[in-house]
Specification:
Arc Repressor Mutant, subunit A, 108 residues, mainly alpha, 3 strands, 4 helices
Length: 108
């Protein structure tokens, strides 16, 4: 038989509203919902917008950038970054060029 004092509490807080993590979750959910309302009016997802903005920041000096740099700045893994860049290229919002060695694409 398990005694009451042996049961671990699921939280150090009596109420969810006292937990910073719980509050942060609610704020981030509402923030993302509001962002998606705006980006959807441009037929973009939130991640597409982030990648598009990141590409803009990295190319503002009129030099190209590459997928790896975009992914690092956006904090996304290479596969996700590649898929999003492909979708932005299909929408004609970015241009991708194959590098001289063929393994890397530059973006503008």
């Amino acid at each position: 038989m398990v005694k009451k004092h042996e049961i671990k509490s699921i939280s150090n807080f009596d109420l969810p509203e006292q937990s910073l993590g719980f509050l942060l979750w609610h704020i981030s959910t509402r923030w993302r919902s509001s962002i998606e309302k705006v980006t959807s009016s441009f037929s973009l997802t939130h991640p597409q917008f982030v990648i598009l903005a990141t590409t803009g920041w990295l190319t503002q000096d009129n030099k190209g950038t590459n997928q790896a740099s975009i992914g690092v700045l956006a904090s996304l893994d290479p596969n996700t970054t590649s898929q999003i860049l492909r979708s932005l290229e299909l929408k004609k919002l970015i241009e991708r060029k194959t590098s001289l060695d063929g393994r890397e694409k530059s973006h503008s």
